[in-house]
Design a protein that fits this description.
This protein has a 24-stranded antiparallel barrel. It has a seven-stranded mixed β-sheet with strand order 9-10-3-2-1-12-11. Strands 53, 54, 57, 59, 61, 62 and 63 form a seven-stranded mixed β-sheet that branches. The relative contact order is 0.09. A hairpin with a 3-residue loop joins strand 38 and strand 39. The radius of gyration is 32 Å and the shape is globular. The N terminus and C terminus are likely disordered. Helices cover 6% and strands 55% of the residues. Among the domains are: 110 residues, no CATH class; 137 residues, no CATH class; 97 residues, Sandwich (Immunoglobulin-like), CATH 2.60.40; 110 residues, Sandwich (Immunoglobulin-like), CATH 2.60.40.10. GO terms for molecular function: carboxypeptidase activity.
């Protein structure tokens, strides 16, 4: 019965989407279908620009790329008009025009027209899709589209402005200090307010349970998070409980957390203390070597960088997880772990292993209405010694008698816990640390004191810590080593404790613990997306027990399918006996347009081979906001099958969904869930309702306007610009401005710097330029930080520079050409090319003079023409402003120190 039900439900989940999609296609619909769609990773010379670019595979293995989509990622000013089968704009800069006319089979780049085969192009509703090789020919770049790796690697023949900016940022990065260099973007302050925001997320669930004999109502639950500014701090309040109309009170709260904090990546809090974080409420200080984890309601002050692991080679991530949500953890694209929804409405990933060098940790949250949200954290391990003379510290005072500030499990007597840790930079390659903590374990108060050294030598980091428990006089030692042998990262740690040593939350006395890891292995050299990690651990206990564990994690991407496999071997020894267990799990996911398929299995090989669980699930999107999801789980050990099916819709103001489930034990359930999120926009005081969660991430209220008087202030009569897009941290952001020029940029990393810039490709006039190429701000939960983006109208002037040589006119390369305003101030400079051509861009409206640099004219003993030009208010392209260099008479040529400009009539 269980096998039959499993087959039927699996077929239903898979075939329903196929049946919906298998309708008869209109004659004018493109030949590509959703089955050809492939989401790809896009990289520009090694820098990731997008992880989910929509592409299509066609016959012969060729890949079709979106013209405007690629242009926007590369910051090219190309716009496509699928209805007219045309595209236009410029390539990299306004002087390099681009024009595509599919009907006539003509493309023009920088004034050079050519023909092409229209069969290599597909016109869809959202964009014009061009074969990758053909698009590379048009844009003068090599585009490597790899179907097996689901990746696109772009290598321009000449550096793009985007590449040059990225190169400047890389050159400016700081590998020694634990703070990175400022990329020289203007920083916009976002001061905390007495009252600001808020953002409110609310979810309610109604459920019915039943079996063959009865139907009963389950608990009707709710959960909410409120975040915003309160008392000049950022407040986050989480509440959950039961709604019962027959009881008093009507609402019963069974779980609550409250946190108030200030965060500054620059470390300018509390004046001379230089704190980066001040927190009150349910805090989570970092663990201390030898003492363990310290948590509970209290107060914490820290000056450690916001996104830096304070442990040697691990980091712990925790946070809020609403009802019906689960979260996946990826490190550098490798799936590491998974946390399902739980009654505590929280997730914690403890001791996440970090590789030597750069680590990108990505948390992907999956919601009950088919909603997805991503958080990204960056950590640099190694080469992060504190600069000599600097220090970082963390101090906390907590009450260990309760799990949270709003919990009811606290004992009558408080149990204050004090902790302190700090790092001091001794030299460029050596950092000293110390710690002090008083904690309660059972009824005993333990006092820890410790010191340590962390050193860096070439590509190796070494750490040593020693801790003493003052009451008992026992010692604990810890040592670690990290290094990298490209592309492999190695880690080794040793922890040694004297008998009777106690740590917080310890269930068994440990004598010694050894762990080792090898990360970054490439099991398949021909597959760059494959990665493997190997780990070993051995733990010895006071009672003579010993536990060993060997583990392998491998991740691969094949034909768009991401699959991760874990294999573990454990050996337990005690009193001469030995127990061994060999087990593992596999996880695979495939994402195509409108469809997501997942498969997970857990199994054991020894001592008894069996499959513990098989889960198959997926989602189908009828449209971007309507989702059908389903899953089937089969447990061979108990011969039970559980199946679920749900529909959800995410509207502009709220989301709702209905889910049903059935078990082979003849029990069933049906549930209805409603979700609503509210965010207050601070400029107009209006509330924005959404079906997406808004309270957990940072938000920005961005205003874009045409600054006609160039005072950088939005005056009443200045025009707001709509449909303007943005880049956030070099990634394309989906939100655009409305008719009032305002966009709410959502889902931003909270409490860390975000670099925000206008996507110039979305400005309707090529002569419009943002005043600031990018600005830097620190978003925070609940309060939409305001940013203004003034846009100026500019002009472009171009022409030729010629010189007279033996009464013949010849091009003059390498000549400095200047634009000068009415006050005599040089407002723009450029140098003529090999053919004498010059171009001055970003010129303000009004009168200006075009001339050759007086210093260069005097040095070369030439007199130059002076041209007067008028750029109108709307901006303009002005061509053929030619300059002529004529040799000075002999009596002037000897006066090379005379830098005055000799004007002659324009040609």
């Amino acid at each position: 019965m269980g096998h039959a039900l499993l087959c039927l439900l699996t077929a239903a989940i898979v075939l329903v989407p196929v049946g919906i999609q298998g309708r008869e296609r209109p004659e004018n619909e493109p030949v590509v279908t959703d089955e050809d769609l492939l989401l790809c990773l896009v990289q520009l010379a090694g820098t990731t620009l997008s992880r989910d670019l929509m592409t299509y595979m066609v016959h012969g293995g060729n890949m079709l790329l979106p013209l405007e989509g690629i242009g926007r990622l590369l910051e090219l000013g190309i716009r496509s008009d699928p209805s007219a089968q045309q595209a236009g704009g410029h390539v990299a800069r306004p002087g390099q025009d681009f024009m595509l006319d599919i009907g006539n089979g003509i493309v023009s780049v920088s004034g050079k027209a050519r023909t092409f085969d229209p069969s290599r192009i597909a016109v869809l509703q959202d964009d014009i899709y061009v074969e990758s090789k053909l698009l590379g020919e048009w844009l003068s770049m090599h585009i490597d589209a790899n179907r097996l790796e689901s990746s696109i690697n772009i290598k321009p023949f000449a550096p793009l402005p985007l590449q040059q900016r990225l190169a400047r940022q890389r050159r400016g990065s700081n590998t020694w200090g634990y703070r990175s260099n400022d990329p020289d973007y203007p920083v916009r302050e976002a001061p905390y307010r007495f009252l600001g925001g808020p953002a409110i997320d609310m979810t309610g669930t109604i459920s019915l349970l039943g079996n063959k004999k009865s139907i009963e109502t389950s608990e009707n639950r709710f959960s909410s998070r409120i975040s915003g500014d309160l008392l000049w701090m950022n407040a986050q309040l989480d509440l959950s409980g039961v709604i019962d109309g027959e009881s008093r009170p009507f609402v019963s709260i069974d779980n609550g957390r409250l946190l108030l904090e200030q965060v500054s990546p620059d470390g300018d809090l509390l004046g001379p203390l230089g704190a980066t974080k001040v927190a009150i409420g349910d805090i989570h200080p970092s663990s201390l070597p030898g003492a363990g984890n310290i948590s509970g309601p209290g107060l914490m002050v820290s000056s450690y960088p916001v996104q830096r692991s304070q442990d040697f080679d691990t980091v712990t991530l925790r946070g809020f997880l609403g009802d019906g949500w689960d979260v996946e953890l990826f490190r550098n694209g490798m799936l590491l772990d998974y946390r399902p929804s739980n009654p505590d409405q929280s997730y914690i990933f403890s001791d996440i292993p970090l590789m030597y060098g750069y680590n990108e940790l990505k948390l992907i949250f999956n919601g009950p209405q088919g909603y997805h949200r991503t958080e990204t954290r960056h950590f640099h391990v190694g080469q992060n010694m504190i600069e000599p003379g600097n220090w970082a510290y963390q101090a906390s005072l907590t009450d260990a008698s309760g799990s949270s500030l709003l919990s009811s499990d606290a004992s009558d007597s408080p149990r204050p816990t004090l902790s302190w840790k700090s790092d001091v930079g001794v030299t460029r390659w050596l950092t000293a640390s110390n710690l002090l903590a008083t904690v309660f374990e059972d009824e005993d108060q333990l006092v820890y004191a410790g010191a340590g050294l962390s050193g860096y030598l070439q590509m190796m980091q070494i750490e040593m810590q020693t801790v003493r428990e003052l009451e008992s006089g026992r010692w604990a030692y810890q040592a670690g080593l990290l290094t990298r042998l490209e592309p492999v990262s190695l880690s080794l740690t040793l922890q040694d404790y004297q008998p009777g040593w106690k740590t917080t939350g310890q269930t068994a006395a440990i004598l010694q613990q050894i762990t080792g890891r090898i990360d970054g292995l490439r099991p398949l050299p021909f597959s760059p997306s494959s990665s493997m990690s190997v780990r070993y651990g051995r733990t010895s206990f006071v009672d003579g027990q010993e536990r060993q564990i060997y583990g392998i994690i491998s991740t691969h991407r094949t034909l768009g399918v991401l699959h991760t496999h874990r294999i573990n071997f454990e050996r337990h020894r005690q009193s001469g006996s030995r127990r061994e267990r060999f087990y593992g799990s596999s996880y695979a996911s495939l994402i195509r347009k409108g469809k997501t398929l997942r498969l997970q299995t857990d199994y054991q090989i020894t001592p008894i081979a069996h499959v513990e669980r098989i889960t198959a699930g997926g989602e189908y999107r009828f449209d971007p906001v309507t989702v059908m999801s389903g899953a089937v789980t089969y447990n061979p050990l108990h011969a039970t099958t559980d199946a679920s099916l749900g529909f959800s819709h995410t509207g502009k103001s709220m989301s709702y969904g209905i889910q049903g489930g059935y078990s082979s034990t003849h029990t069933w359930r049906v549930g209805l869930q409603l979700s609503l999120s509210l965010l207050r926009e601070p400029r107009q005081g209006t509330w924005h309702a959404s079906g997406h969660m808004l309270s957990q991430q940072g938000n920005i209220s961005a205003l874009v306007y045409l600054d006609e008087n160039r005072n950088r202030i939005h005056d009443e009569n200045e025009r707001p610009l709509d449909n303007v897009g943005f880049f956030v941290n070099l990634q394309n952001h989906p939100d655009t401005t409305d008719t009032k020029g305002i966009a709410i940029l959502k889902d931003l990393p909270p409490n860390v710097y975000s670099d925000v810039s206008i996507s110039t490709a979305t400005l309707e006039d090529l002569l419009w330029i943002p005043v600031d190429k990018s600005v830097r701000v620190t978003p925070r939960p609940g309060y939409a930080v305001t940013l203004d983006f003034p846009v100026w109208t500019t002009g472009v002037i171009s022409g030729m520079v010629d010189r007279i040589d033996n009464e013949r006119r010849k091009p003059a390369p390498g000549i400095q050409v200047e634009a000068v305003n009415s006050d005599g101030t040089v407002i723009e400079r450029t140098v003529s090319g090999y053919d004498g051509f010059y171009e001055l861009t970003n010129l303000p409206p009004g009168k200006c003079s075009i001339r050759v640099s007086p210093d260069q004219s005097a040095k070369l003993s030439f007199a130059s023409s002076l041209r007067q030009v008028l750029i109108d208010r709307e901006g303009s392209y002005i061509d053929n402003i030619d300059l002529l260099l004529e040799p000075l008479p002999p009596e002037h040529s000897s006066r090379k120190n005379d830098a005055s400009l000799q004007a002659i009539p324009a040609p």
